[in-house]
Amino acid sequence: MFVSATPERLAKVNRGQFETAGVAGTIRRGADEAEDARLATELLQDPKNLQEHAYVVETIVSRLQDVATLTLPDGPQIMKNPQVQHLYTPIAGQLNGDNTVLSLAERLHPTPALGGKPVDWAMATIRTIEQHPRGLFAGPIGVVKPDGDGEMIVGIRSMWLKQQTATLFAGAGILADSDVQAEFEETGLKMTPMMNLLKEQDK
């Protein structure tokens, strides 16, 4: 069984209207509202996270601009999850022609947050350094209707259950100036929903 607590929609299509989003750039939640707001402001001003986010948004726009009329804000917003905050740019619009949710998923997957940039070099590097196959982790998962409408999410922050074994998955966006310890701690935060789920089952 595959379980995901993803914050990320890959694509949603309904009668020619589509929605997706750039979600990249992360910081922890604060202990109170004041600290939470301070951390959100820090994230919105952090060059590394802004660059990571820009890579994702620019790639989404370049992959969809010939099949859709795109609408998106000038800059990222803040998405708050229980453990972390993200830079978030909603992208929506009107599809041209007979494009379906599956055709959009094919164009968008993998985003730079999952497959790197430039994609051919990054995917070759991932195959070299990652010790285990990803399986469903980071893949498109969702529902497709007979008319091609539907919704696909990105299967991140997830868990694969097989018999009595649970394997947890989470990742971080790595750039040249990434801080190793900070990325490690971020990955731990992203695993928290699955860890909490396992703790609940152990009671």
Account of the 3D structure:
With 203 residues, the chain is an alpha+beta fold. The protein has a single domain (7-156), classed as 4-Layer Sandwich (Anthranilate synthase). It has 6 helices and 10 strands. Strands 2, 3, 4, 5, 6, 7 and 8 form a 7-stranded antiparallel β-sheet that branches. Strands 1-9-10 form a 3-stranded antiparallel β-sheet, covered by helices on one side. β5 and β6 (84-95) form a beta hairpin. The longest helix has 22 residues, at 180-201. It is globular and about 50 Å long.
Structural class of the secondary structure composition? alpha+beta
Q: State the share of residues found in helices, binned by percent.
A: 25-40%
Poorly predicted segments: none
Q: Rough shape?
A: globular
| Count of individual domains | 1
Look up the CATH topology: Anthranilate synthase
What is the CATH-assigned architecture? Answer: 4-Layer Sandwich
Beta-strand segment tally: 10
CATH domain class: Alpha Beta
Mean pLDDT: 93
Order of helices and strands: EEEHHEEEHHHEEEEH
The helix count comes to 6
Oligomer: single chain
Short note summarizing the structure:
Helices cover 37% and strands 30% of the residues.
